Amino acid sequence: MEALLQDTTAKATDPASRRLGQDLRSLRKARSFTLAELALKLGRSVGWLSQVERGLSQPGISDLRALSNVLDVPLGFFFANETAPPEEQGFIVRRDARRSLGNTQDGLVEELLSPDLGGSFEIVRSVFAPGSVIKEPANRPTEEAGYVVAGTLELTLGDRRFQLLEGDSFRFKDQILLWRNPGDKPCIVIWVIAPPLY
What we know:
alpha+beta; 4-stranded antiparallel sheet; 5 helices; globular; disordered N terminus
């Protein structure tokens, strides 16, 4: 048993565990959970969760499943970019190694373009399906900017509505956000979000 614990600790000090911990901390804060609140939802101790966030403990697959459910991200989010060469980890994200959020049934698929969530901002590629609409207004304590790569995006910020076309860009801070793709083609937007949200 002691050898097993030592082996887990050794694995947990690698760069992947540190990145997982940083991403988990960012997701927890973006979802407005304290360490104690998230630990309670997971049925784990605050100490364990703190060690995971600091990269000192490595969660098992059942813990990752519980985290993905509570934080509303797909399980695969926690595994992506682990196959990158060591010299690229934390710096480069190859197009086939992006972490995805969302699904086509909900009308929005987002890919994390940043290597992790440990920085002061994140970059996300959003693909809005034709005719898709946000179901509930988003009220995020963030500063965001974006560039419409393709398609049409209707963006509502508070009581102002804007129609953005390919090549248009935007920026806002601390706004109630609604979006809709009124077009018959996918809309692709590159977002910069600070602090990291996903």
